[in-house]
Structure formats: C-alpha cells, structure tokens
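Next up, sample data:
>
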Amino acid sequence: MAEPLDLTKTLEKSVRDEEESRLFYEALAQRAERPETRALAESLAEEEAGHREALLRQFEGRINRERTLANLAPRAIASSATPRELLLWALDKERDSEVRYKFLAEQFGGTPHWVLFLQLSEGEREHKNRIQGELDRLPAV
C-alpha cells in the first residue's frame, strides 16, 4: 500500500526545485554563446521564480520560505558541458516537473489547489517545448 502524500514535504520540494531551476537558468544565461539561448534562459529563470512565488503565496502558512530555501546553491555546471548538454538536462527537469504537477493536480482535483497545479504543469510543458525548440535550432555537433 502506498504511503499517503505528505503535502508539506511535496510542496517544499516543489519550491526548492523551482528555485534550483531558476539558479540553473541564470547560470546557463551567463554561459550561453547564442543570444537566443541566453534570452530563453533568462526568460525561463524569471518564470521559475514566478512558479516559486505562486506556490509560496498559495500555501502561505504551510511552507516556511526561509527554511525551504535555505542553503540552496546553483547546480554545479561542468566547464566542459556544452549548451546542448545543458539544454537536454533542462528538458528532463522540465519533463519531471510537468509530471509532478500533473500528479498533484489529479490528487487535488476540485480544490483551489487543483487550478495552481494544473497551471504549473502547463507552464512546465511550455518550458519543455521552448527548450526543445532551442535544441532544434542549435547547430549540429
């Protein structure tokens, strides 16, 4: 039998994931060689911050911002990582987030939380599509 969903832990993980993604996209923007990749990364960083804030607003009182975001640091990016490799990693991360939020939307159907989780799932799918588009435009290796 599956253990019951611990909403607070799930929300805290989601907030941390959004912040880690924001930090990653900021680092990617600094390393991007193509202006289009830089602009995409900057835009995604802003949107991830928006996702983080939407979660914190919706669940104010349930999530402790300072504790949840404490000790987060940008994911170490190997100096040898290519833009393609970084975008592929981001694509996987966005896929995982889309699935997680879709699952949460299903778990909280009919509640006010359902709407937020559905919006976040759709936002992550849009990120995934934009990243895939940028991957398709990168010069062949």
Summary: The chain is about 75% helix and 0% strand.
